[in-house]
Predict the structure of DUF983 domain-containing protein.
Amino acid sequence: MNDRVYPKLKPYIVGPLGRCPRCGEGRLFCGFLTLRPSCEVCGLDFSYADPADGPAFFASMFFCLPSISFAVWLELAFQPPYWVHAITTLPLMLATVIPPLRPLKGWLVASQFYHKAAEGRLVREGEVADPRTW
Ligand SMILES: [Zn+2]
């Protein structure tokens, strides 16, 4: 059991850096987007973390705007064949959408820890539901 008291770290600072949201020292990832099972410094279990499609949503909604703008401009200005889009727009889109995935995932996992976000439960473990209190 870890009894050390940790300062509350800002998720928008430790998350994008890929650091543990509790201690800020341990690493969050063991691959590009794969989370470690736990922090190697403070032992925080990362099994709570479930950002689901959040990083992909934010990356595709906001970071693809330059490549989509380029694709629209290219199409309207030159009406090139599809292979031109394949060698220009596709690499640009991949270059703008993939790099932010990791910082976004780190930020969302750190935000889950910071806000203690979890699946909703109607009854806590060990409690008995009492219909009279409804
Ligand atoms: Zn840690």
